Amino acid sequence: MKIYLVTGGAGFIGSNFIQYILKKYSDITIINLDKLTYAGNLENLKCIENNENYNFVQGDICDRNLVSSLFEKYDIDYVVNFAAESHVDRSILDPETFVKTNVLGTVNLLDISKKAWELKDEIKSDKKYVQVSTDEVYGSLGETGYFTETSHIDSHSPYSSSKASADLMVKAYFDTYKMPVNITRCSNNYGPYQFPEKLIPLIINNCLNKKPLPVYGDGMNIRDWLYVEDHCKAIDMVINSGRLGEVYNIGGHNERSNLQIIKTIIGYLSENVDASINESLITYVEDRKGHDKRYGIDPTKIKNELGWYPETKYEDGIKLTIKWYLENKKWMENITSGDYQGYYNRMYKGY
Ligand code: NAD
Ligand code: DAU
């Protein structure tokens, strides 16, 4: 009976991951530690909230006493750290919050896990700490080439720099203390339960409400999109089989410009929901400061070592995703009725 401490499990990827592993394993216990920031939403976990293997604790990964008390109460086997401030635009407005959660929170989790797992001079080898990181730590690519695990760390935004700093602390715990760790670096995820400040759910929501679709710069920046369930599958494989101390890149070679993504969403909604949703909604706005041009992941290592491959083709995944938001309008309404509107106006309308 393995016990997982999943942090940030009420967010987009964390909630998909908890659903994924509870479906896959019946003999595990999950403790979901989440602060429930604006991005954390317990509605994302409604379908498993009564599962007897699932426990929710509201709290901050920076809270030493709280995290220590969880290790005292449970013999935790795996820490999977999803908890983070995750939105680049917010990091440009407020870098410090990103340093607190993403860097100091990670160090707090590492330190308490290490103490709990220490056995005389060694650390128990059947335990593992997995840091869920991002391809953004590698910076930006030109027109060709891919990020590999040995690409230089060259982060640009306060968000990606806080994630890169956290990665280096995870590496330090491996190099210095032989702490059993892995780092995963995935490309852009899409799918159910993503907060509508991120490109895909924002565009779907704005189309349905006939609001302008804000395109930063010329819309030609490129992201490498992966269906969220394929990311969850990769993390599960890394937990079980990743070689200690290793970094694994995760991505499915699905590069699209932002305009391509937006036009696909418009096309689907116009055909299936309302013919008056069209490209006239596209509105070019000021570019993101320090906007990375292109991301592209080389996933050879995780494919060769762990046998991972993406199961959902982009053409299917994007349809599944749009359908999910259409079938879960209440979920979107609940989110966009709160602070969201003020945030949205500040970001895109300048007031
Ligand atoms: P998200 O913003 O949707 O969710 C983050 C979750 O963390 C929320 O539930 C929030 O309440 C919680 N949280 C924030 N601060 C906390 C704190 N101090 N203590 C405890 N909980 C806290 O983020 P996401 O998109 O699901 O990303 C999850 C992780 O995956 C992040 O670490 C992110 O860097 C990484 N990642 C994201 C993507 C992507 O495309 N979204 C891609 C690669 C990696
Ligand atoms: O690459 C992985 C990263 O992907 C994760 O680490 C981050 O947590 C996640 O937020 C995501 O970062 P991006 O900045 O790539 O995602 P975002 O959805 O914010 O933006 C995607 C692209 O779309 C980017 O080039 C900016 C552009 N964009 C975004 C928004 C919200 C627009 O043109 N208009 C918009 O309104």
From TrEMBL:
Presence of keyword Lyase: yes
Protein name per Swiss-Prot or TrEMBL: dTDP-glucose 4,6-dehydratase
Residue ranges of every copy of the NAD(P)-binding domain listed in the record: 5-319
Domain of life of the source: Bacteria
Catalytic activity: dTDP-alpha-D-glucose = dTDP-4-dehydro-6-deoxy-alpha-D-glucose + H2O
Family to which the UniProt record says this protein belongs: Belongs to the NAD(P)-dependent epimerase/dehydratase family. dTDP-glucose dehydratase subfamily.
Key words, A-Z: Lyase, NAD
EC number: 4.2.1.46
